[in-house]
Amino acid sequence: MLLRAIFVWLSQASILLPIISGLINYRRLTTPFRALLYFFLASIGFEVQSIVLIDLYHNNMPGLHLFTFVEFLTFSFVFSVFFRRKKRLSQLMIVNAILFVLLAVADAFFVHGIWQVNTIARSYSSISILGYALIYFYFMFRLDERNYTIEHPMFWVSVGTLVYFGSNTLYFIFREDLIARGSTALLIGGSIHALLNIIANFLYAQSFRCFSPKTA
């Protein structure tokens, strides 16, 4: 259990990787990547409030509801800027954002409540962000930019979302059931989630490094 606790702590601390990389290259960041950096900075606040809520109420679910909301809007904004010339796709993203907000509110106040896992909102957000990343790769391959992909910050963000959301979506969907059963699968799923979070943060950090003069 001690080793698992240390591993989870390392996963939480890995958020410093994209933050440091983003701050180093802050002046060269575009608007969507500054928004992404602000999200990572806000994530530290979410981690702190999670610890406080667990200490006070033995439950940190209210923070997860808010985190999911901020996470979805941030990644949606980052991808929407890339898709801004695709009018129909941009319109669909707006409709999807409205649907998410409605689902998130319903999940928080009518379905599960703020003290329960936001399974509906978290799953919908994960699937949506994963879909944006897949659409990005579709357009990238159509443009045949294979020789330049590793120099594009959006490439690393999209790979990071594929790694994190692509692998964790089922965990988000079934997490409530795993908690209810007290299954050992919850511990395994949580450990895998922690590992994928570390990998994703490395990839997000690389996206900020693309703005460095050495890699630009």
Structural overview:
- The chain is mostly helical.
- It has one domain (2-209).
- Helix content is 81%, strand content 0%.
- The longest helix is centred in the C-terminal third of the chain and has 29 residues, at 153-181.
- The mean pLDDT is 89.
The run of helices and strands is: HHHHHHHH
Instruction: Report the principal-axis shape.
Output: globular
C-alpha termini separation = 43 Å
Helical fraction: over 70%
Mean of pLDDT? 89
What is the number of helical segments per DSSP (H or I, 4+ residues)?
Answer: 8
Q: What count of domains describes the coordinates? A: 1
* Number of β-strand runs: 0
Structural class, from secondary structure content?
Answer: mainly alpha
- Estimated share of beta-strand residues: under 5%
List unreliable stretches of 5+ residues: none
> How would a crystallographer describe the biggest sheet?
none
- Rg, rounded, reads 18 Å
Provide a compact summary of the structure.
With 216 residues, the chain is mainly α. It is built from 8 helices and no strands.
Q: Key terms for this structure?
A:
single chain, 216 residues, mainly alpha, 8 helices, 0% strand, globular
